[in-house]
Amino acid sequence: MQQLAIFGGTFDPIHWGHLLVAETALHQVSLEKVIWVPSLNPPHKEAALFEHRVEMLQLATKDNPAFTVSLVERKRSGTSYAINTLMDLSACYPNTHWYWILGLDAFQTLPNWYRGRELAQMCNWLIAPRLLGGETITQSELICKQVEEQLNKDSHIINWQFLDIPLVGVSSSLIRKFCRERHSIRYLVPESVRSYIANNNLYSK
User: Fold this and answer.
1) CB 130 within 8 A of CB 103
2) Which pTM was predicted?
């Protein structure tokens, strides 16, 4: 049975932190592939055009044969929900043990996701610790255990582990802010992505 991971998100834009997370996941749990899934219509945020975000993802990941970008969400109308993504990809990749890569802040909200309790049991969860409010790893573990307890109350079992990565203080929102304020984003994103943002005048307003 192959081991694959889904890395879903808006990637608005993709940055070095995302790439570090995916590369760490690849080796920490011996994955064959990380499937990057850009959200078409993210439920809680407005984002740059899907086509722009996909192009930046493809530019950033093209040198790694274990990274692939899926356009599974393009075929779906309405809001993007994680459980639909997993079911669609399961049809494309049968006989797969699935992992889902996400940040600590997103994992914290998992019980409230659309069919989140059902989804929790359908894959293993790889969590990237984040500097939400300056949490230590111990505090981050506590947050995850609270999520686990919440799910266990309803007899839902969840398997999760932290990705062993340095805490990187770069975020897509910071990059968008820098673009608006005309600060340099060199070394925050791959050079190909930086050029694409500049050439298409993204995030300048």
Assistant:
1) yes
2) 0.92
